[in-house]
Design brief:
- This protein is α+β, with helices and mostly antiparallel strands.
- Helices cover 40% and strands 31% of the residues.
């Protein structure tokens, strides 16, 4: 299993609009195609208050690649991305593997 952490820095004041758009247009598509959402967060306090972080679990890196390709090809997702792209300042992605002592429970 791997977990991808995606961090988006948004233009000041656009987090509520981004989250509303995601909830209404992006969430269902990602859940259907990507599968297991580990978490979806917005920063409340700190140096990155205009940041959204989400985590997705995959069986393997290859599983992630296949699911991300399906997502990128989805017309509804493409429409959604065109709407949110102007809100984004920066995007960072990390692929994380669990520590040897951690046994994750996946509930897809």
């Amino acid at each position: 299993m791997i977990v991808e952490m995606r961090e988006y820095t948004l233009h000041s004041g656009t987090v509520p609009e981004y989250l509303k758009l995601y909830e209404h247009e992006g969430l269902a598509i990602q859940r259907e195609i990507l599968g297991h959402m580990v978490g979806y967060y917005r920063t409340e306090v700190g140096s990155a208050v205009n940041e959204v972080v989400h985590l997705w679990a995959y069986d393997s890196f290859e599983d992630r690649q296949q699911r991300r390709a399906r997502l990128a090809a989805d017309p509804g997702w493409q429409s959604y991305v065109r709407k949110i792209r102007p809100m984004l300042v920066e995007q960072r992605n990390r692929i994380m593997y669990p520590a040897s002592f951690f046994e994750p429970e996946l509930h897809a």
